[in-house]
Structures are given as structure tokens and as C-alpha cells.
Amino acid sequence: MLSTQIKSVDANSLVYIDLKLTTDDGVTINANHSEKPVVICLGDGSMSDAFEHHVVGMMLGQEKSFRLESADALGEYQPNLVQFMDLHSFPNDIELAEGIIIEFAAPNGEPMPGVVKEVAGHSVKVDFNHPFAGEAITFNVLVRGIDQPPEV
């Protein structure tokens, strides 16, 4: 439920936002405007400190754009997240081709997408980096609601 009693975002707010992410060359990565808002619990470690710094203090209904360097946006590109996997470890009904995205299970059980970069012989090169890792990102944020986080 979106609250109208809380008027500005604090360091522990549950924030409902419209969010648009854009690269420096103008590619829109994600935009949820006019859809269901993105819900972020500030202070839970899911967003970078730099992102939270820009959002704290925003008012209900306020829109703001800010640019974050890659380390504070979607992360630096990490070569160790490129893995070579045996072709036979994939189900037979998946047609492996360069550029397709396959959902794997991370060690914690959460879904983790991987992009097939190359299929050669019995080896499949999969990149688990975010496709825009290593790039600065401009965030356009519109605060649609502010609540206190649920009690744990």
C-alpha cells in the first residue's frame, strides 16, 4: 500500500519508484514508467550507497535524474564471472546460440541469468555479468510512494 503520510525518503524507507536506466550512449536498459512501481527497501544492501544517497531526501512525487559510475550502478565487469561449461550439462531441448540468455540457479537458489557468448565443440562460454556491467548509468527516479519497512 502506498503511503501518503510520509512525505520524504529517509535512510530506512520502503520506496515505491518509477525507474528508468540509461547508458551514456542512450540505450534504455530498464523502464517501468506507467507499470507497477519498483519497490526498494533502503538500507538493506540491495542498492549501492551512492544510489541511496541520491534518493534519501526525495519528496513524494519528486522526479530526479543522476548518473552513477559502473561500480555504484550495475557493477564492474568481472572476468571471473565468465564460465566455460560442458555442452552436455544443458538440456537437449535448449538450442544454444550466441546471445541467448539462460536462467541458472545461483548457489543461494536465486535465479541468475547467463548470456551464451560462444559455443565451440563441447564447450559453452557463459557470461554471468550484467550485460551493462562496467558502464556508467543514468538513473531517472520518480517517487510514487514512501512507507516504513515492515517489522522483521
Molecular structure report:
With 152 residues, the protein is mainly β. Helix content is 5%, strand content 39%. The chain is built from one helix and nine strands; from the N terminus they run E-E-E-H-E-E-E-E-E-E. The strands form two sheets. Strands 1, 2, 3, 4 and 9 form a five-stranded antiparallel β-sheet that branches. A hairpin with a 5-residue loop joins strand 6 and strand 7. The longest helix is centred in the middle third of the chain and has 7 residues.
Counting DSSP H or I runs of 4 or more residues, the number of helices is 1
Which bin fits the share of residues in helices?
Answer: under 10%
Strand content: 35-45%
N- to C-terminal distance: 18 Å
Shape: elongated
Biggest β-sheet: count, sense, barrel?
A: 5 strands, antiparallel
What Rg do the Cα atoms give?
Answer: 19 Å
Q: Give the helices and strands as they follow along the chain.
A: EEEHEEEEEE
Strand-pairing-aware structural class:
mainly beta
Mean pLDDT value? 90
Extended strand count: 9
Contiguous low-pLDDT stretches (5 residues minimum) are none
